Structure to design on (717 residues):
């Protein structure tokens, strides 16, 4: 009984210390934000029901999207290669093939109408000071603008791959990968670095990456960080809430609100786990077996002690 | 030269040359431990096991780790954690054991303080134990440099800066320690050497000294009773194990140790697989960047109490207080003026001193981590003063202690 009491005392002091240096101290050091479920409540909802056929005409025609964006599934290649595009716009405009399933529909609608507002970078792009966002606003194609925006969104949704077909890797590349490298999977801002046979080809590729990064750093103020270990250094909760609204944690950051929907956010997290914590399934599996083994060991140790000590008491 | 006869068995052959029977008797079966002990007496074995886990996991990590500022981070977080089979397991075992070993050291220390196990001939046990504490601290700090993450770099910067001695401005000494103006390649290389060679050698030597120091005064017991070990051992050997006050190290004591080790390992491996973040700070998963200071720089939890004795004061006063905190535990056997080597609960004012010290160190630990804003700054300041005050009061309250 006395030993049990001592064990309780030791455990209580240990847990109090743990509580103070871990949960309590971290609650004092970091602001905590709860996820808003990727609802983007500050943005007005799409009021009209979109029509994909009309949307296609707008995207390819009056909307002028394809002046900057490629749409590979519709047979539209990007007008410029990534490095040239970054030199012109700061960052390579995304291919829109899967935009409809990665980005939230309401966010896309608002993005088309007013990019700087939807992206939460109005502190950086103030038209009054002549700071124009590289993506021009859509001022309407002559008809009901809300209807036209809804149509374009409907078109983008109609061409995008859905569900399982949209892999975590594809989601990451579209949502994050044009600004963030991830060298643990050879991802660069201009795509995956291939294996080269000739050193000259590799150097040429590296030069392209560096050129792209120069443009990007100039556009963003600094080169956005490599995300290889972000799942361990920031954790899933921080990444999710940060992506939802970067201004919460980093007031004035150049990082835009990405506008992914909840499903795509989960896929991005999964991809970050696949890259930064790839052994997590093995860890859980091995963990279970080791726990079973060590509990059996403890039982035998207990029995041995009882056997030895029965002569001593 | 001794006389050797033709061996009758391998055992006999070895016995003639190495005296294995005598060794076994002296080190194990007739090494006498008091019977009146509780599970806290197993912490030595728990520490030995944890040290073994650190050593073995460390050897495996050493096969892939690259002590180079450009490669270190990726060799740990990519090569070891993701490419090498079970590399992640060795790293998690190593990281968690490095943190848990200090929890056990603190329990072991406070057990010694509570039961007065540093007095009446046991002074060298205490002093060798404190030397081990210092060696483990140096080992932990040097090991923390190796992943070359943000916390490695900035902790390295802050701690080596302490050697400038505040107003003494011994910047030359700091540069000599770093091998450079800032932590860089020379710094990483020497801390690598310290971590994998020099300090482990010192630790192994000190463990030998610590065990040796135990031999003559014997292990203390739960009531601080002075035991006639020879008389009790004779009783035990005569077969009267029940009334003898001593037990043999092997199997009696060892079986109880192993029971505690078993329970401890359940706790340990739970942390390794399911709750490791406390031992592997997220900030250190960002690669070292000398141009980007992290928002919060703090040491690992086991250094927080002494860090908080440094922090609330002005630079020079803080450094003196810090130096005081580093050496004062060594002097415990001499600052405690009472001849009573009994549990604190039977020692008058010392009882309150013990619990006040324990709680004060937990408060210091907590305040050492949170940002130095109010009210934490004030709490930390008074906790640091209390720490110093308690040590100054110790000789006086023990001097007038009644004979227990």
């Amino acid at each position: 009984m006395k030993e049990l009491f001592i064990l309780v005392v030791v455990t209580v002091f240990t847990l109090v210390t743990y509580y103070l240096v871990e949960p309590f101290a971290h609650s004092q050091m970091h602001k905590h934000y709860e996820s808003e479920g990727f609802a983007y409540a500050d943005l007005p909802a799409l009021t009209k029901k979109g029509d994909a056929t009309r949307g296609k005409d707008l995207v390819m025609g009056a909307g002028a999207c394809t002046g900057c964006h490629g749409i590979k599934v519709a047979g539209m290649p990007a007008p410029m290669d990534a490095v040239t595009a970054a030199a012109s716009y700061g960052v390579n405009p995304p291919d829109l093939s899967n935009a409809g399933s990665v980005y939230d529909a309401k966010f896309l609608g608002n993005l088309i109408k007013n990019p700087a507002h939807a992206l939460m970078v109005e502190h950086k792009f103030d038209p009054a000071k002549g700071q124009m966002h590289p993506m021009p606003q859509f001022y309407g194609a002559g008809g009901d603008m809300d209807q036209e925006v809804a149509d374009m969104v409907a078109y983008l949704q109609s061409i995008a791959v859905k569900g399982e077909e949209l892999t975590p890797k594809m989601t990451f590349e579209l949502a994050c990968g044009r600004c963030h490298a991830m060298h643990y999977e050879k991802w660069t801002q201009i795509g995956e670095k291939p294996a080269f046979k000739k050193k000259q080809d590799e150097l040429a590729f590296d030069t392209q990456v560096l050129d792209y990064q120069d443009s990007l750093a100039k556009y963003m103020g600094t080169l956005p960080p490599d995300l290889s270990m972000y799942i361990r250094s920031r954790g899933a909760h921080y990444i999710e809430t940060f992506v939802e609204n970067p201004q919460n944690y980093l007031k004035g950051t150049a990082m835009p609100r990405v506008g992914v929907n909840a499903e795509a956010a989960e896929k991005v997290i999964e991809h970050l786990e696949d890259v930064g914590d790839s052994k997590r399934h093995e860890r859980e599996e091995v963990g279970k077996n080791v726990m079973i083994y060590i509990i059996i060991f403890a039982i035998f140790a207990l029995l041995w002690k009882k056997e030895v000590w029965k002569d001593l008491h | 030269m001794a006389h050797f006869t033709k061996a009758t068995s391998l055992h006999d052959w070895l016995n003639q040359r190495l005296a294995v029977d005598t060794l076994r008797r002296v080190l194990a079966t007739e090494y006498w431990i008091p019977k009146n002990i509780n599970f806290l007496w197993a912490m030595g074995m728990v520490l030995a096991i944890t040290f073994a886990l650190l050593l073995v996991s460390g050897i495996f990590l050493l096969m892939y780790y690259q002590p180079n500022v450009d490669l270190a981070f990726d060799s740990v977080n990519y090569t070891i954690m993701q490419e090498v089979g079970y590399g992640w397991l060795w790293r998690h075992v190593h990281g968690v054991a490095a943190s848990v070993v200090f929890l056990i050291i603190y329990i072991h220390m406070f057990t010694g303080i509570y039961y007065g196990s540093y007095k009446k001939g046991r002074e060298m046990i205490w002093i060798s134990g404190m030397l081990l504490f210092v060696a483990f601290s140096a080992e932990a700090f040097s090991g923390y440099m190796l992943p070359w993450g943000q916390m490695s770099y900035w902790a390295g910067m802050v701690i080596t800066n302490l050697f400038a001695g505040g107003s003494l401005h011994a910047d030359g000494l700091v540069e000599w320690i770093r091998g450079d103006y800032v932590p860089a390649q020379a710094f990483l290389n020497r801390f690598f050497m310290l971590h994998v060679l020099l300090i482990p050698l010192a630790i192994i030597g000190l463990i030998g000294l610590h065990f040796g120091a135990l031999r003559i005064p014997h292990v203390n017991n739960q009531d601080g009773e002075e035991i006639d070990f020879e008389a009790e051992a004779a009783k035990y050997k005569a077969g009267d194990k029940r009334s003898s006050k001593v037990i043999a190290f092997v199997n009696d004591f060892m079986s109880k140790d192993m029971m505690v080790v078993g329970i401890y390992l359940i706790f340990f491996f739970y942390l390794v697989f399911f709750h490791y973040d406390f031992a592997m700070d997220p900030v250190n998963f960002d690669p070292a960047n000398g141009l980007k200071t992290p928002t919060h720089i703090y040491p690992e939890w086991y250094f927080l109490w002494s860090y908080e004795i440094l922090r609330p004061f002005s630079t020079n006063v803080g450094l003196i207080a810090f130096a005081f905190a580093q050496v004062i535990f060594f002097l415990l056997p001499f600052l405690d003026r009472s001849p009573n080597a009994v549990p604190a609960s039977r020692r008058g004012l010392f009882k309150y001193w013990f619990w006040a010290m324990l709680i004060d160190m937990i408060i210091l630990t907590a305040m050492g981590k949170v940002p130095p804003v109010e009210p934490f700054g004030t709490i930390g300041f008074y906790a640091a003063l209390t720490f110093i005050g308690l040590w100054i009061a110790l000789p006086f309250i023990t001097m007038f202690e009644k004979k227990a």
